[in-house]
Design brief:
By secondary structure, the protein is mostly beta strands. It has one domain: Nucleic acid-binding proteins (OB fold (Dihydrolipoamide Acetyltransferase, E2P), Beta Barrel). It has 1 helix and 10 strands; from the N terminus they run H-E-E-E-E-E-E-E-E-E-E. A 5-stranded mixed beta barrel has the order 2-4-5-10-9. It has a 3-stranded antiparallel β-sheet with strand order 6-7-8, with no helix packed on it. Strand 4 and strand 5 form a beta hairpin. It is globular. It starts with 10 loop residues before the first helix and ends with a strand.
């Protein structure tokens, strides 16, 4: 099957093409996150999927910052492995964590939720973001949205 395209320089054709491309992109980016218990996330079927899960924020024994982000632990009452969460550490004080200085304490950790309110270590949160890794050695959620749960 051969498809022939008739290229036109008309402004109406160009506007139509821009509209079609925009609609396709909006449709592709508007998927709803999959709600999954944190202890069930680190499997290939959720890799690169937009997910939402709940847990408690905790500092790992050691952690790193790289490329404008910081990686923290997400824990719950289960004994199964949970994903880490990666938050940006720059920009508007929403869905991010402030950079830590040398000699920090747990009280210095400033995490901001989707509304700009403070989340403390140990608070229960709901996180939405894309799951990367999904294997035993590496499984993390790049956080788009973090909300404190009362």
């Amino acid at each position: 099957m051969m498809i022939k395209f008739n290229y036109s320089n008309s402004k109406s054709t160009n506007k139509f093409m821009v509209l079609i491309i925009t609609l396709v992109l909006l449709t592709a980016c508007s998927s709803e996150p999959i709600k999954v218990r944190a202890c069930e996330l680190c499997f290939e079927k959720y890799k690169n999927e937009l997910v939402v899960t709940e847990g408690f924020v905790k500092l790992p024994e050691s952690f790193y910052t790289a490329g404008g982000s910081v990686t923290l632990l997400l824990v719950d009452d289960s004994r199964k492995r949970l994903p880490t969460i990666t938050l940006k550490n720059w920009g508007e004080k929403k869905n991010m964590m402030e950079k830590l200085k040398d000699g920090y304490t747990e009280e210095d950790v400033m995490i901001y939720d989707n509304d700009g309110n403070i989340i403390k270590l140990g608070d229960k949160v709901r996180v939405t973001g894309e799951l990367h890794g999904a294997s035993k050695p590496w499984c993390e959620i790049n956080v788009d949205k973090i909300e404190k749960i009362e």
